[in-house]
# Entry
Amino acid sequence: MDISVVTTHPFEDQKPGTSGLRKRVSRFRQPHYLENFVQAVFDSQPALEGAELVLGGDGRFHNREAIQTILRMAAANGVGRVVVGRGGLLSTPAASHLIRSRGATGALILSASHNPGGPEGDFGIKFNTAAGGPAPPSVTDAIHARSQAITHYRILKEAVHVDLDHLQATTLNGMDVEVVDPVAAYADLMDELFDFHAIRELLAGDFRLRFDAMHAVTGPYAETLLVDRLGAAPESILRAEPLGDFGGGHPDPNLAHARQLREAMFGRDAPDFGAASDGDGDRNLILGRHFFVTPSDSLAIMAANAHHIPAFADGLRGVARSMPTSQAVDTVAEALGIPCYETPTGWKFFGNLLDDGRIRLCGEESFGTSSDHVREKDGLWAVLFWLNLLAVRRQSVETIVREHWERFGRHYYTRHDYEGIRSEHAEAVMDRVRDRLATLPGQSLAGQTVRAADDFAYTDPVDGSVAEGQGLRVMFESGARIVFRLSGTGTEGATLRLYIEQHETDPARLDLDPQEVLRPLIDAAGDLGDIPALTGRERPDVIT
Ligand code: VG1
Ligand code: CO
# Structure
């Protein structure tokens, strides 16, 4: 079959963000747009020649078309074999597992995670390396540099169409293509990590759960794991069918977007356990009956209870959290006598720590937790961790969290997002705070003394690489913190994120409203960044 070498010109907006390249579907459908980026991956990653590539996505609109294009390009670029999930589906953690279990050289994952899908929605693509994780900055920089110098891409001339809907092995111009079950290997891995027997017993009793797949990729995973293998009632899974537009919803697992789940869990006769995952299956929301578990607390509770889980029988060695994540897990690590690393936002920064065996558990405040079983955050893994824990401790979610607070204190935490603001306005807030950083230590804000303030930079302890400009931190003597950061996953304008936390150990003050407890710090942050004046916004769009 003939190969076309198509002349093209760089698009100036192909710099990957926190998690790959994300744009409006209309942008991705512009002639040559996807092709340029994919060619930039092949050009900058010569190891893919003759090697195995994993390919799949979260099922959003344009997923199948993009997969056909990538298959034709992979064949024209000399890739040896492409492993595709049936229906073009692969959750992000399942793709990570396939790379690792098959010894593949990388993956292209098609997703814009929790961003809305459909013709008017978003699309995305990210490259994962042979270790299974998101490409580190050195690799994304190389891809970006190549995208800015690109002149040609290679693609099979004929618009062949590979059948993605049946498990099969075929060839495309000499390249092997294997369509695999997207769930099976991942489900087997989960079975190795957790005590399925104990969870089955829990679910066989009167324990009830709800899982909201949000019409995104986790539906088939949840049905196989929770219903088929663990015996949950089929009606436990809400919105199980993956849809191109996620049923018109926003596949972001938080209380605002998982409304049906929230109503069930906070209504009369609520189930014992509720959970949800996002578009590509790497995030998790954990709820008890009438009870919300913050992601930062969830990570800390996992660390404190890891010894109950078979996968962690040999201990944790170390843990890590992204910088804006609350320090709840630090407190646990200290009690366990293990190191706790603080990395920039984005899963790619955990990769080296996991590969080097320094940590076995890590997480982010943005509803992401995972361990060394893959190199991505993993939504269903977190759900199974909690179910395993509930099966062992036989207490409610709320009791487990409250006992944790009694032992370690409570890290009151909130994130305020100002979405879709003009980029200049967001930069102006960051500049204002950055200008004030040096004067802050020793000053009193919200009745508390500032201990230190900086622009967070991270030196990777494994390879010595440095990531700068990762968020502005104001740290108080009490341990409280205010963090300012700009989102790197949006597709329109800018999103300013404000993260606030304060540790409380007084047993009489563990059951307060976080927004009230944190109000003085929230107000101080607003003043510090002159947020209303510089953005024209009186209040945030989303509070988590
Ligand atoms: C957000 C989160 C970050 C997460 C990233 C990708 O990034 O804050 O913690 O790793 O999304 O998650 P940002 O730059 O918008 O703050 V996912 O589930 O969207 O791949
Ligand atoms: Co995601």
Summary: The longest strand covers residues 410-421.
